[in-house]
Amino acid sequence: MSGGPWTKSRTGFKDKTVNMKEGKCPWVVLVSRPKEIDDWVVNTLVSEHRCVQSRTIKACNYKFITANIVKQIESNPTIPVNALQEDLIQKFEMNMSRMKVHQAKELAQKHVFGDFQKQYAILRDYGLELMERNPGALKEGFKANLRDFKGLDGTFMKGPYPGQILTAVGVYSNNGIYPLAYALVENETTNSWTWFLEQLGDDLELNANSNFNFISDRQKGIIPAIAKLFPQAEHRFCLRHIFENMKKQWKDKELKDLVWACATATTVRHFEKALEELKKFKAEAHDWLIQIPPAHWARSHFSGRAHTNILLNNLCEVLNGKIQGGRDKPIIYSLEYIREYLMKRICNVRRETDICHGPLTPTATSPLDQVKRQAQKHRCIFNGVGRPKKKRKRAYDEPATQGHKLSKRGTTVTCRKCNNKGHNSRTCKGQGGPNDKRTEETGG
Hints:
Layout: E1 7-9, E2 12-14, E3 28-32, E4 41-46, H1 62-75, H2 81-92, H3 98-113, E5 119-122, H4 124-130, H5 137-145, E6 149-156, E7 164-171, E8 177-185, H6 190-204, E9 213-216, H7 222-229, E10 234-237, H8 239-247, H9 253-264, H10 268-281, H11 283-289, H12 314-322, H13 331-354, H14 362-375, H15 437-442
Parallel strand pairs: 6-9, 9-10
Antiparallel strand pairs: 1-2, 3-4, 5-8, 6-7, 7-8
Helix pairs in contact: 1-3, 2-3, 4-5, 6-7, 9-10, 10-11
């Protein structure tokens, strides 16, 4: 009952005098009861309406909606908010905002699936399933043979489920991706990345002095997390994401080629030359780019510890594309989807490895075979020069003595002890003479 000006007192509800204003809807219901033990009595009823009914009830909040959609969420967790909204409007015949329904759906999901908790998985567990004789084979394989290089990335969960998936991916000898770890966290924050990297460091036996190499898209919180846990590590930034940020201000097509020329330069001299070309083309873009230290994005400034010149974080992008089908599932099902994909991939890689011949991977064998085929068309010819000369060749106008040690042939040697000619101080036998200094000093 609503619309009537009634209030609650200690003894219940009592009616009040109503003064209807002109133009207002006259509909009203007044009820009261003298005592709490008495029944409710309708004292006044005016059923005439002059307004459109809004059917909006304050008591219909998101908590009330949650109680009515829990069973729907249990049976169909991916039901859209629009579908829930239409069902509720039809059921209760009242207006219901989409925001209320969205809040109610989130609350119902927490009620059905529980609070979100972090989940972490490492491929050492898959090593137990794949090779029972060698526990943790994949983790040990990474530490023994793979490069000290790993890509880090985060991707959103899809559908009604909150959270993000953090991934760590390496690269193996055939230049393929080597997924090592993944985790489900609430948000991509410094705390989440710190927790994830702590778990990864424990599994790979990394510490603050480890000279490891990471590449990322500069996600929120990842830079301070790496600086805190691995201060000696090299942290590269994905060049594609750097350029995407530049494109927001400068959309020149030539700019991309100039930036790539700077990043791919292999020496500092070539890097500085490419950077100067960028400055001539657009000084503002040059000033923006040099704010990022070249050690994070330019090959000429990399430490070289990882033995790879990768500039893009495509390792994680490939993995994110492969696990896309599991990102709209509940937490447990999402983790299981990723685990199944990784197990299948491991089996496929092992099958390809078994049919390989030779000590090198297919990626390394193919260019080597191509060089061998090209070398078959050539034959070795003896050049006949003999022992190479050590002295440099003189220019046609250069004097014979320039750049060479002067010869003492034809000159007379004077002894520094007796001042006689024909011998030096090393072979001097004390020969006396008119110019002998020792004779003059002793008076002999």
